[in-house]
């Protein structure tokens, strides 16, 4: 019997385009996209940012240094970084709100503070609850200093909230994240297009809470 629902954010709650920041930073820096992509792969600053090893200031500093432009304002960098986020489907947020009366809801995301602030801005602009209000608790990689698919991050969620793995469903679009959760006994559901989280929720929860 499922009592707890854990959701990924990108491409589960909100659609994303992982290539968009590369395109936008390449345009800003007047560099080929391939060069910017190579810089992203060569340096670990994004991973460090998403696991809390560096903060917003250091992240922006790395971007300026690696793309050789010291004059970019914080807002320019943040805007380009946030182009990964596509339009938010309101019906997904509304569905999560409906589920709160029967299930405990959690968010588990490999993400960065800049992205979370932007998502919350969009939600508030639509008169919707922030992520922190929508879920019983949020687990951001940069706060817990762990990232999926590390088994430790799933164990951290289970233990800190007293969740039983077999009573918990986890929805994610990444196959490696799904495998890691499954190995701990969590009912892991691989969200893949053209289906959306709404389809998978109906399939998983049709037996009721």
From TrEMBL:
UniProt xrefs under InterPro entries: HAD-like_sf, HAD-SF_hydro_IA, HAD_sf, PGP-like_dom2
Pfam families per UniProt: Hydrolase
Organism name: Spirosoma taeanense
Name of the protein this chain belongs to: HAD family phosphatase
Transmembrane stretches, start-end: none
Superkingdom field: Bacteria
């Amino acid at each position: 019997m499922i009592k707890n629902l854990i959701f990924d954010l990108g491409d589960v709650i909100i659609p994303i385009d992982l290539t968009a920041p590369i395109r936008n930073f390449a345009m800003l820096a007047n560099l080929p996209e391939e060069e910017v992509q190579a810089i992203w792969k060569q340096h670990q600053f994004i991973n460090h940012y998403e696991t809390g090893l560096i903060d917003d200031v250091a992240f922006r500093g790395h971007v300026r240094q690696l793309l050789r432009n010291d004059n970019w304002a914080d807002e320019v960098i943040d805007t380009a970084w946030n182009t990964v986020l596509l339009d938010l489907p309101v019906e997904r947020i509304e569905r999560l709100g409906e589920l709160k009366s029967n299930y405990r809801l959690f968010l588990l995301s490999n993400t960065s503070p800049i992205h979370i602030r932007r998502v919350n801005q969009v939600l508030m602009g639509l008169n919707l609850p922030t992520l922190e209000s929508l879920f019983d608790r949020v687990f951001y990689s940069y706060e817990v200093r762990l990232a999926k698919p590390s088994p430790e991050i799933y164990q951290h969620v289970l233990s800190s909230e007293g969740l039983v793995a077999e009573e918990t469903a986890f929805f994610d679009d990444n196959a490696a994240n799904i495998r890691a959760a499954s190995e701990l006994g969590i009912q892991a559901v691989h969200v893949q297009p053209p289906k959306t989280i709404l389809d998978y929720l109906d399939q998983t929860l049709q037996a009721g809470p």
